[in-house]
Specification:
Layout (H helix, E strand, L loop, with lengths): L19 E2 L15 H13 L4 E4 L2 E2 L8 H17 L5 E4 L2 E3 L2 H8 L11 E5 L9 H10 L3 E5 L11 H9 L3 E5 L9 H12 L5 E3 L5 H10 L3 H9 L8
Parallel strand pairs: 1-2, 2-4, 3-5, 5-6, 6-7, 7-8, 8-9
Helix pairs in contact: 3-4
The protein binds fe (ii) ion.
Length: about 240
């Protein structure tokens, strides 16, 4: 007899794995990510072994501590790409940036400076983890006005938005794309970040999944995250754009 109380288990079938990562800090010595080419190569090789075909590396740009110019970023990218090629590691490297929402960023937007983007004019930005930024609305307006498609890095990590999920939905409804960190799904950044990441997936408003890899331990967590059900659920029920980059 078939039990009336059988638990319905959702399955997500087979999904196409992500082969393009679009958020990491693997250009040595220019932000809080890897500090040597040796460390960078170890991580790049591991990504290639996991089946990744392309890494879009996104160094921090912050007025207070990381005033990285496109020249600094491209120069490091060229050096790292040369080594990767010499070693025969089969992976493509590109670079953009992760802009911190501060006065430095606002000045760039206001004067129409050419900013570093990836794919179809996607512009990755982050805010303070703790405080709401008074620049947020104006920055979003200016990003659109300047022809960019804003992508909010790790929306699940902003403590000032905990308990205010509707604020993230409002941003999404304005056209701001959401990029969750894979590691949030294994609780790497704490239970609140995990809950918000899962809710973003549930509401189907995730557009990108990034590793935000700064060092090897992030990649260890990323590998674990790839095995959890919510990662598969994100790939099957959200429109994830990574592989189109
Ligand atoms: Fe990052």
């Amino acid at each position: 007899m078939i039990s009336l109380f059988r638990i319905k288990k959702t399955t997500y079938g087979t999904v196409t794995p992500i082969t393009v990562d679009m958020h990491s800090h693997l250009l040595p010595g220019i932000d809080d990510g890897v500090q040597t080419f040796e460390q960078a190569i170890t991580i790049v090789r591991r990504f290639a072994n996991l089946g990744y075909k392309k890494l879009i590396i996104t160094p921090h740009i912050m007025g207070d501590c990381y005033r990285n110019s496109p020249e600094i970023i491209w120069n490091k990218l060229d050096q790292l790409s040369d080594i990767v090629k010499q070693l025969g590691i089969d992976i493509q490297l590109e670079a953009a940036a992760e802009y911190y929402l501060d006065e430095f960023f606002m000045r760039k937007l206001e004067c129409g400076e050419q900013l570093l983007t990836f794919g179809d004019h996607y512009l990755l930005f982050e805010t303070s983890f703790i405080n709401y930024s008074p620049y947020l609305e104006e920055a979003i307006f200016l990003m659109f006005a300047n022809g960019y498609k804003p992508v909010l890095a790790h929306p699940e990590r902003y403590a000032y938005l905990y308990g205010k999920f509707h604020k993230l939905e409002e941003l999404y409804n304005k056209g701001v794309l959401m990029q969750i960190n894979s590691n949030s799904l294994v609780g790497y950044y704490g239970p609140e970040a995990k809950t918000v990441a899962e809710l973003l997936i549930e509401r189907r408003i995730v557009s990108f999944i990034g590793s935000d890899c700064h060092r090897e331990k992030h990649l260890d967590a990323h590998q674990k995250a790839q095995a959890v059900e919510n990662y598969t659920k994100a790939l099957s029920s959200n429109i994830i754009l990574n592989n189109k980059l």
